[in-house]
Write a structure and sequence with these properties.
The protein has 14 helices and 29 strands. With 530 residues, the chain is α+β, with helices and mostly antiparallel strands. Bound molecules: adenosine-5'-diphosphate (ADP) and magnesium ion (MG). Adenosine-5'-diphosphate binds next to helix 6. Pfam families: HSP70 (PF00012).
Length: 530
């Protein structure tokens, strides 16, 4: 029984397993490639294509093609309609996952059932849960969802067993997202120190810059023709752009042949020009990197032993060069677009080795390897701050007219706290006289940096503390947050005079079994091919 790791990427996905000698191996796609485009083409009712075939169809029928859905994972209310049927981001992701599993089974002969799926480190609980649901809708048993940089580091650590404690900076620039994470690797312990990123910055933005240049070059040569008004032409130019971008990672210049409206233009593209057109995009990644280096410094990390590049975009030589020039870091480039899936496969094996008796036999590995795997610990941090809604005690109205006083989010659990975490009791008070119950509203940080403004946070759940004795305002209440290793949040609120309390768990955005089963049936009818 092999365990699989899946990198469910914004633009490309990848699946890996661990062989008998505990080496992670990529399971190839239906067409023999290491990665599969995370694209679904809803050809006709009940028939969906996934992967390269779907990506190619984007040219002909963009309105029937779903892509970049990872950006909408966990957003409530987001749905797409194809052939009058509605699809959530989870359902579309489930189609991608099902195809990955199908191709992997076909190519390895191993059944794909137990999996670990990776997510960006800055994903909040709702996004993680949506990812888990996508796996379940696809009929997989999701052992865990794991942060991508941790997976990359785990793979890296497995291939490089330098002893001692090391700090690793992971710089991951993919097709649609950028994230950067600091990780501490110490013996068998792999721990996230802090994480930061931008969910709307990636290879597609580079492609866009190239397209703009191609379009304007074309218009300069043929002022009476405007390919930018033609969807098909734009799509074709976009494909050319991605091709030339990739080619320029290996070569210094490339000719691009453009055809439109009976005219043809040959554009000579150089690596230098590409770097010039996209310098500000790279600068944005550098600014975020600077921010995380600063966060890490505040947490006592003042040097990095290793810089790991992940994501297909880091194959561009300018990335490593920029990190070297700005931060004096010498990044290591090792299978940037495969490391996450391989690390996830290793993590799946670690999980199995820990939790299963007779794991070695079941997993088909040696007893010694199973024992070594079971010893590994991977801990992670709270991706974002969590808190409760409260009346701002600094607002003078809090005393005279609390109903009209400013409301804020008081964060109890700070971003980047190590998991499992327990905040200990935080003191609050009732706001009005004779208040017999308190609604405990739990809010999660929504933006990249913590803020107490309600608008910068999302409400993710609530509980009711009842049985408070009739007293003037100021009745003392304590609220405690505890978050498990896998991110489940338990909230405990207690009124101190009577000891009455309420405890509730947040299964945020958690669809019930029935909903998942229904979604699975919905997509089961789809014949899917890579
Ligand atoms: P994600 O995880 O976000 O889906 P990947 O890590 O698979 O993304 O990276 C995909 C991005 O990397 C795409 O924008 C793709 O064009 C780009 N890419 C892939 N190979 C290369 C290369 N050799 N040079 C430059 N960019 C590349
Ligand atoms: Mg990725």
């Amino acid at each position: 029984m092999a365990t699989f790791g899946i990198d469910l990427g914004t633009t490309h996905s990848c699946i890996a397993y661990v062989d008998e000698s505990t080496r992670p191996v990529i399971a190839k796609s239906a067409i023999g490639e290491d990665t599969t485009p995370s694209v679904v083409y809803f050809e006709r009712p009940g028939v969906a294509l996934v992967g390269t075939a779907a990506k190619n169809s984007a040219l002909l029928a963009p309105h029937l093609v779903a892509q970049l859905v990872k950006r909408d994972m966990g957003r409530s209310g987001v749905e797409f309609t194809y052939h009058r049927e509605r699809y959530t981001p989870e359902k579309i992701s489930a189609l991608v996952l099902r195809e990955l599993a199908r191709a992997a089974e076909e190519n390895t002969g191993l059944p794909v059932r137990d999996v670990v799926i990776t997510v960006p480190a800055y994903f909040g609980i709702a996004e993680r849960e949506a990812t888990r649901r996508a796996g379940e809708i696809a009929g997989l048993n999701v052992l865990d969802v794991l942060a991508e940089p941790v997976a990359a580091a785990l793979h890296h650590h497995a291939v490089d067993e330098t002893p001692g404690t090391r700090h690793v900076l992971v710089y991951d620039l993919g097709g649609g997202t950028f994230d950067t994470t600091v990780i501490r690797v110490s013996g068998d312990d792999v721990q996230v120190v802090c994480t930061d990123g931008d969910g709307e910055l990636g290879g597609a933005d580079w492609d866009q810059r190239i397209v703009e240049h191609l379009l304007s070059t074309f218009r300069d040569a043929h002022p009476n023709l405007d390919p930018s008004a033609d969807d098909l032409a734009v799509q074709e130019f976009t494909d050319r752009a991605e091709e030339v971008k990739k080619a320029l990672s290996a070569t210094m210049s490339r000719n691009v042949a453009l055809r439109f409206g009976g005219a043809a233009v040959n554009v000579r593209f150089t690596r230098e020009l590409l770097e010039e057109l996209t310098a500000d995009l790279l600068d944005r990644t550098a600014a975020i990197t600077e921010r995380i280096v600063e966060t890490a410094r505040r947490k006592g990390v003042d040097r990095f032993d290793e810089v790991l590049l992940a994501g297909g975009m880091t194959r561009m030589p300018v990335v490593a060069a920029a990190l070297q020039a700005r931060f004096g870091l010498s990044p290591r480039l090792s299978e940037p677009d495969l490391a996450v899936a391989k690390g996830a496969a290793l993590f799946a094996l670690i999980r199995q080795a820990k939790s299963t008796r007779g794991a070695a036999r079941q997993l088909g590995i040696t007893e010694a390897d199973a024992a070594a795997m079971a010893k590994k610990r991977v801990s992670t941090v709270v991706p974002r701050a969590f808190g409760v809604k409260a009346v701002d005690p600094r607002d003078p109205l809090a005393l005279t007219d609390p109903m009209r006083a400013r409301q804020m989010v008081a964060h109890l659990l700070q971003a980047n706290t190590r998991l499992p975490a327990d905040t200990g009791p935080y003191p609050f008070q009732t706001a009005i006289d004779n208040q017999r119950m308190v609604e405990i509203e739990v809010w999660e940080q929504a933006g990249p940096t913590p803020s107490e403004e309600l608008a910068d946070n999302t409400k993710i759940g609530h509980g009711m503390l009842t049985g408070i004795p009739a007293r003037p305002a100021g009745c003392r209440i304590e609220v405690t947050f505890a978050m498990s290793e896998t991110g489940e949040l338990t909230v405990h609120a207690k009124e101190l005079e009577t000891g009455n309390d309420v405890r509730f768990e947040l299964n945020i955005g958690g669809a019930d079994r029935g909903t998942i089963a229904k979604a699975r049936t919905d997509i089961a009818g789809h014949s899917v091919s890579g």
